[in-house]
Amino acid sequence: MASSSLRMIDNMFKGIYNGRQCHAADVPAVLRRAWAAGVDRIIVTGGSLEESKAALEIAETDGRLFCTVGVHPTRCKEFDESGDPEGHFQALASLAKEGIEKGKVVAIGECGLDYDRLHFCPAEVQKKYFEKQFELAEVLKLPMFLHMRAAAEDFCNILAQNKNRFSTGVAHSFTGTAEDRDRLLSFDNLFIGINGCSLKTNENLEVLRGIPVDRMMIETDSPYCEIKNTHAGVHFVKSVWPSKKKEKYDHDSTVRGRNEPCCVRQVLEVVAGCKGIGDLDQLGKVLYHNTCRVFFPNDLDSAADALLDNSVPVL
């Protein structure tokens, strides 16, 4: 049993790259590869109100699909631009409640701070609406799916101020320093999510070595964050899939340069290799348990049985 994060709403899964249609939408093929690779469930991440609506609609199409509801830091201007910030927030809350009732919404997010892309949204606006979304986690009793880029001090300060408003969560796609890592680990209810973007440099790998496996999750964050041939950890990768350029699309092959949920096994392989863990299955068991603790707590008992299988656990 396994699960993976996916930005299924992204245009790349519609066959559109930089505004150009290169092939037909291929979500069914992407999902087939995921299920064949051992992925059991997928979390479709929402990054705005409209995107969260679309994520819920997609999640309803398959019993193995779930989603988040929230506003990404780079999109937080949408609250003010709506002309009714509180009404916009209440629409987000109503959507999350609807998704919970349908058994599909498993977290609030993706929300947080991104100071690498302040041209999309000023820091003060990001901070205001990051903090506001803790209200959703508190009222709805959901975990947080968090985003942090070049903003560790403010991010951790806001977490500290709101630590009693959320039960648990993950700071996904972590790319920070050892100091950033240790700040996050100081929150005993927080996990750190690792994907291809976390494994680019030797410094990244050194930071990874200091994350205890019982505080870690792995993910794809596809269609982005693939492990590239230039990444420091690529020599640990053993699993590969046939791939072709988008212009020569073949539904039996992955699209070169586009990440997919099936590729999460590569992240597991790099984490194992980097940390010197020879038993890939045992590492997978721990990571899968972490995932269930946060997003699927009602499945912890069944997950314990499933961990006896040789499957790949992912976020």
Automatic annotation (TrEMBL):
Residues the record lists as binding a divalent metal cation 2: H147, H172
MF (Gene Ontology): 3'-5'-DNA exonuclease activity; metal ion binding
CC annotations in GO: cytosol
UniProt xrefs under InterPro entries: DNase_TatD-rel_CS, Metal_Hydrolase, TatD-like, TatD-type_Hydrolase
Pfam families hit by this protein: TatD_DNase
Signal peptide from the UniProt entry: none
Binding site for a divalent metal cation 1: E110, D221
SUPFAM superfamilies per the UniProt record, alphabetical: Metallo-dependent hydrolases
Alphabetical keyword list: Hydrolase, Metal-binding, Nuclease
Family according to the record: Belongs to the metallo-dependent hydrolases superfamily. TatD-type hydrolase family.
Identification of the protein by name: Uncharacterized protein
Species: Colocasia esculenta (Wild taro)
Origin organism lineage: Eukaryota, Viridiplantae, Streptophyta, Embryophyta, Tracheophyta
